[in-house]
Every structure is written in C-alpha cells, then in structure tokens.
Design goal:
With 373 residues, this protein is an alpha/beta fold. Helix content is 27%, strand content 25%. A seven-stranded mixed sheet has the order 6-7-8-9-10-11-12. The two termini are 40 Å apart.
C-alpha cells in the first residue's frame, strides 16, 4: 500500500498520466471539488458506505490502472486502502488528503528572459491559483503569492536570490494572500493597489498605474497597468516587454468576475473598459499569464498556464461580445457560486482577521471561483 504525495499526483496531472481515483468523501464534497486530471477516472463511494467491507467494491475497480484512494484529510482513505490491500487490490492513498492537495504548489519555468533573468509560475493545482517569481542577478520579485510563504522563500534560496519586491495584483477574495507575510519575512517591499487598500490595517507601498520596478542588474522592467473590473484596484503587469500578468481580469478560457465586493453592476463597466479598451491598446504578441485557471484543459503541455494575447482575442468568448448590454448581461447572469468564506478571506487580506492555520485551510477549501465562463 503506497503513500502518495501531492507532488506525485501533480506529476500525473501535468504529464496527463492515467489514474483511477476512488474518492471516499461525501457525494456533495466530491461533486463540488475533486482532483482534476485529463486522463483520470473517478468513483465516489462515501467512506461510511464501506464500513461493512469492500467485497462488492473490488469487482468494480480496474485491474489495468493505478488506483488512488482520496479523502478529506487522509484517515478515511488509509482505512479503505488497508481494506482493499487485504482484499488483494493494489492501491495507494493520498498523504494529507484533499487538504494537502489544496496546499501544494508546483514551480514551473515559464521562460528565460531576454535581458538575463528567469520567470517562474507556481501552479496550485488543487485551487487553480497561479503565482509568479521573477529572478535576475540574485534579486527576485514575487507576484500574487499564496499563503505558503516558505515555498517562495525556499525556492528563492535554491536560486541564490533575495526577494526584494512582493506584489498583489488586487485584494484577493478567493484565497488568502501570502504577500504581506512573505514581505515581512524577507524584508521585501509589499505593493498593493491603493484603491483596494482603503480598509487595510497595515503599511504597504502603493501599486499604481505606470509604477515600474527594476529587478537585478539586468534591469528587467515590471510595469504596472491599472486594469479595474475584478476589483476597483486591479492592476496588471508587463514583464520584460513580453509577459502579460493579468491577475484576475483575463484568464485563458474565461474572464474575471466583478462581484466579490458586492458591486457587480458597478464594476462590470470597468471590466469591459479594461478588456475592450485598455488591454486592446497593447501588443497582441504579449503572452498572457493569469492569476488563476478554471479548468484543467487550460494547462499547457508542460503544465504552465499561459497563451498569446492575440489568440485569446480570437478564442476567448469574454473578449468577443461586441454589444455592451449583451456583455453586461452575460457577465452578471452567469456568475458562478461565490467562493467559500470569501468575505472572511477579504478581511484576512485586509489584516483585520488573524485566523489559525487550520482555520485558513478551512476558509480556502473548494475550487477556484474567480471566473465568468
């Protein structure tokens, strides 16, 4: 009976390997959120339905695929895996369960930068979050860090770099930002859009339109572009004149939702202005790197999430609704369910709540819900 790590499961997702997942959580939890993989098969049988034994289950399991048992925190999957092992079925279980899957970050290299640096994307497969690190000449900048600050610290150390700048493209509502903590631990400057920071209780550097920060001796420009719509302060970045970090405004297969502060009707106009005016003044050759992805099909062959802006202008439905009223109706009528605990998460990111690590985990449980598709 093998104990699988979240890293191993991530490898199967990224490389599109086959896997059979036996999820023993309750049906509603499974239907709301599961481990997505393009070549994964699933069976959902709640743990309590297997307490009397697995004899009826065994014939339903594949004999030609690896089998992974998954639950919320590990305990139930261990018990089911042990029963299956005793019945002669070779299985593994996910160490830490869905809690561990939600927390795991896979760092992937996006590119070597022309002026002598590197750009990395940190893919949080279980939550759909995407963070970024730019490294040049021993200095690093992090954009949209999730709450696991040690992951970014350790990665920078591996690359012999010191984190000098930390940015949040906006005040996040679907996950707890690690930006402020990371800046405090490393001594970096923490940037936040002031229009999103009116209620924060900590000091920050204002991230405003046309803010430019240089990274390392190579002088890699990180240029900020005010782009409201998801929030009133949302800000995008262009790195090295090529890479376009769009935060939660534009995704590969969808666009950002404007309602997480309760202002959908007010902000949908800002969203359209950003997508149909501000962004369209930029080069179509820019490579879009969003802060989230929604579906597993958005991953590229190497596991990164990104695409040429010109391709999105042709393919992304949210960029091809010419009538303004139709756009407004499409966005406001197709809002997905709001993220779990999003109001509390916003207050954590304002510095007004300080939940424990376990409470933070519970707040974030569930899928990404930042997009309108």
């Amino acid at each position: 009976m093998e104990k699988w790590t979240a890293q191993k499961v991530a490898n199967y997702v990224i490389h599109k390997k086959q896997l059979f997942i036996l999820d023993v959580r309750n049906q509603d939890a499974f239907e709301d959120w599961k481990i997505d993989g393009e070549n994964f098969e699933y069976m959902n049988i709640p743990y309590f339905d297997l307490l009397d034994g697995v004899e009826e289950l065994v014939p339903q399991l594949p004999k030609d695929k690896e089998i992974l048992v998954v639950c919320a925190k590990e305990g139930s999957s261990v018990m089911v895996a042990e029963m299956l092992d005793e019945a002669g079925v070779k299985v593994g279980y996910l160490k830490g369960g869905m809690k561990a899957w939600s927390s795991y970050l896979e760092p992937l290299k996006v590119a070597d930068l022309e002026k002598g640096g590197e750009l990395y994307q940190f893919v949080r497969l279980g939550k759909g979050c995407l963070s970024y690190m730019v490294i040049s000449e021993g200095e690093a900048a992090v954009i949209d860090a999730v709450r696991f600050a040690d992951v970014f610290e350790n990665f920078a150390k591996e690359k012999n770099a010191v984190i000098r700048h930390v940015f949040d493209t906006h005040l996040h509502a679907d996950h707890i930002s690690g930006g402020r903590l990371l800046a405090e631990k490393t001594g970096a400057t923490y940037y936040l859009p002031p229009k999103d920071a009116e209620e924060v209780v900590f000091d920050y550097a204002p991230l405003e339109d046309a803010t430019t920060v240089k990274i390392g001796q190579a002088k890699i420009d990180i240029q900020a572009i005010y782009s409201p719509g998801h929030t009133i302060g949302s800000t995008s970045f262009i790195i090295d004149e090529k890479y376009f970090l769009t935060g939660d405004i534009l995704f590969i297969d969808s666009i950002g939702r404007p309602d997480l502060a309760g202002l959908a009707e007010d902000w949908v106009g800002d969203l359209r202005e950003t997508l149909y005016n501000r962004y369209r003044q930029l080069s179509e050759d820019l490579y879009v790197l969003p802060a989230h992805f929604m579906i597993i099909e958005e991953l590229n062959e190497d596991g990164t999430v990104g695409k040429r802006f010109g391709d999105l202008l042709a393919e992304n439905h949210g960029l091809n609704i010419e009538n303004e009223e139709e756009f407004r109706k499409t966005v406001t009528d197709n809002l997905p369910p709001q993220p779990n605990a999003y109001t509390q998460i916003r207050h954590v990111n304002m510095g007004r709540l300080t939940p424990s690590a376990d409470e933070q985990t519970e707040m974030e449980i569930g899928p990404n819900r930042c997009a309108v598709r």
